[in-house]
């Protein structure tokens, strides 16, 4: 697929690292990230020095895994010093905006790690999106992403349930959406990603729910939320309810 477009391909993540100054990854789960970075023939499967000065992981994973990978990267030195970079640096930088924003280049990046590295990488982020928000140290980008997805999941469930109730009470979905978007119920789920077919053009609901964010991925993200909440001793009842649904 990529080679047909002139993009060089490599056999292993290690081969990619050997040929790159910057490596950007986006993978389905924490286990995939650990395997690609620290597994056999992984990005970090070298001796003590690496060619890439910057690793950016845009996967949606748990904050602890992001911190583990960042710590692993920090144990290496660079093969060649590049500018102010004396050691390789890892940024966790998951994205928000969905498939539509990815296609339009309007993603938002939530970045954890070195603030200097975040500033240096900003041109890269802005080549793929429109917003870059620095969140703090390693793992905070991943933490921001799962918190964002928790809020989005709960709001989507609320909007969907309210629209279903409104239609059952005789209100057209597009009329009720106008009410929401002019009132206190307005949110991304109502004004940008409406769940009812025909209310908005170009969203999955109006394309037979094709091309959207898969429910199994949201379930995975909510599981990350539940695990992170348990780790810090915080009760999140809405997370549990959303997972059940």
TrEMBL record:
Q: In which pathway does it act?
A: Amino-acid degradation; L-valine degradation
InterPro entries linked: 6-PGluconate_DH-like_C_sf (IPR008927), 6PGD_dom2 (IPR013328), 6PGDH_NADP-bd (IPR006115), HIBADH-like_NADP-bd (IPR029154), NAD(P)-bd_dom_sf (IPR036291)
Q: Which reaction does it catalyse?
A: 3-hydroxy-2-methylpropanoate + NAD(+) = 2-methyl-3-oxopropanoate + NADH + H(+)
Q: Give the Pfam families listed for this entry.
A: NAD_binding_11 (PF14833), NAD_binding_2 (PF03446)
What keywords appear on the UniProt entry? Answer: Branched-chain amino acid catabolism, NAD, Oxidoreductase
Tell me the ranges covered by the 6-phosphogluconate dehydrogenase NADP-binding domain, including all copies: 3-136
Give the enzyme class: oxidoreductase
The terms under GO molecular function for this entry are: 3-hydroxyisobutyrate dehydrogenase activity; NAD binding; NADP binding
Q: EC number(s) in its UniProt entry?
A: 1.1.1.31
Presence of the UniProt keyword NADP in the record? no
Would I find Cytoplasm among this entry's keywords?
A: no
Q: Please list the residue ranges annotated as the 3-hydroxyisobutyrate dehydrogenase-like NAD-binding domain.
A: 139-245
- Database matches in SUPFAM superfamilies: 6-phosphogluconate dehydrogenase C-terminal domain-like, NAD(P)-binding Rossmann-fold domains
Signal peptide feature range: none
What superkingdom heads the lineage?
Eukaryota
Name any Gene Ontology BP term.
Answer: L-valine catabolic process
Family the entry assigns: Belongs to the HIBADH-related family. 3-hydroxyisobutyrate dehydrogenase subfamily.
Listed name of the protein: 3-hydroxyisobutyrate dehydrogenase
Cite the source lineage.
Eukaryota, Viridiplantae, Streptophyta, Embryophyta, Tracheophyta
């Amino acid at each position: 697929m990529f080679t047909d477009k002139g993009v060089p391909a490599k056999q292993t993540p290690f081969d990619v690292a050997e040929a790159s100054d910057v490596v950007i990854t986006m993978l389905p789960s924490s286990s995939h990230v650990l395997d690609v970075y620290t597994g056999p023939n992984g990005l970090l499967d070298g001796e003590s020095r690496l060619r890439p000065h910057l690793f950016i992981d845009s996967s949606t994973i748990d904050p602890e895994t992001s911190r583990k990978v960042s710590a692993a990267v920090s144990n290496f030195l660079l093969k060649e010093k590049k500018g102010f970079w004396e050691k390789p640096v890892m940024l966790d930088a998951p994205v928000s905006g969905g498939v539509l924003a990815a296609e339009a280049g309007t993603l938002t990046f939530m970045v954890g790690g070195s603030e200097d590295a975040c500033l240096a990488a900003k041109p890269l982020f802005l080549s793929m999106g429109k917003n870059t928000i620095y969140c703090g140290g390693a793992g905070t980008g991943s933490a921001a992403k799962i918190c964002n997805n928790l809020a989005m999941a709960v709001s989507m469930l609320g909007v969907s349930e309210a629209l279903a109730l409104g239609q059952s009470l005789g209100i057209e979905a597009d009329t009720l959406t106008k009410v929401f978007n002019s009132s206190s119920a307005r949110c991304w789920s109502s004004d940008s990603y409406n769940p009812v077919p025909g209310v908005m053009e170009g969203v999955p609901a109006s394309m037979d729910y094709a091309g959207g964010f898969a429910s199994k991925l949201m379930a995975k993200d909510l599981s990350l939320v539940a695990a992170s909440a348990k780790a810090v001793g915080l009760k999140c009842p809405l997370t549990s309810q959303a997972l059940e649904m």
